[in-house]
Amino acid sequence: MATKSRAELMKENRIKLIAAARKAFAEKGFAGASMDELTASVGLTRGALYPNFGDKKGLLAAVVEQLDGEMAQRAKAAAATAGNDWEKLIAEGIAYIEMAMDAEVRRIVLLDGPAFLGNPSQWPGQNSCLESTRQSIIKMSASGVIKPVDADAAAHLLNGAALNAALWIAASDDPQQALPKVIEVFRLLASSLLTRSGKEESD
User: Rounded to an integer, what distance in angstroms lies between the CA atom of residue 58 and that of residue 77?
Assistant: First the structure.
């Protein structure tokens, strides 16, 4: 039987540790999760953590990156059946906001993530979402669906609105009650970009 290389073992350990951390952070929160228990749960020692992630915060960053990527894919999937480019853009934003109701997303990405990793708008995973929104803005502006606006500014503001809406819901004492209010305001804010013909098309 062939012996696995160091790189292969590190890759396997990384996958195991992210899966274990995701479960532990969701159940106990970042601060409450024990690294000794976490590593032992997948048959590793605490020493396996450092070459892969540096420290506990590095492990959280890896888990957040994985979840953030999944959230982006879920948002795109939710928008796939929308009728036009505008509806797709709004559907993506609303899907992202609604993910604040997911217990795992709420705890790890929206509560512990900002608390221990800083401003979510600066996370690497946000860049691809931002660029996707920017391209949609450019396309719709060129076709007259939305008013001529700076694509970078509009993309940052729209994505920021969805992100901050999700953060607000996650921190709310009553997320279920907050959700429809936030979605209504998000729609109103976004619709200010539409031209008259764009509004007629979206109705």
Answer: 29
Q: How far is CA 32 from the centre of its chain?
A: 22
In sequence order, what DSSP letters do the residues of 157-202 get, joined into one string? Answer: HHHHHHHHHHHHHHH-S-HHHHHHHHHHHHHHHHHTTB-HHHHHHH
Closest CA to 79 of 100, 93, 66: 93
Q: Would residue 117 be called left, alpha or beta, if left means φ above 0 and alpha means ψ between -120 and 50 degrees?
A: alpha
**pTM for this entry:** 0.89
The string of pLDDT tens digits covering residues 25-46 is 999 999 999 999 999 999 988 8
> Which of 98, 64, 91, 68 minimizes the C-alpha distance to 166?
98
Distance CA 179, CA 127 (A): 25
194 forms beta bridges with 146
CA dihedral of 171, 173, 179, 181, whole degrees rounded to 10: -110
Q: At what angle do helices 126-142 and 151-171 cross, to 10 degrees?
A: 130
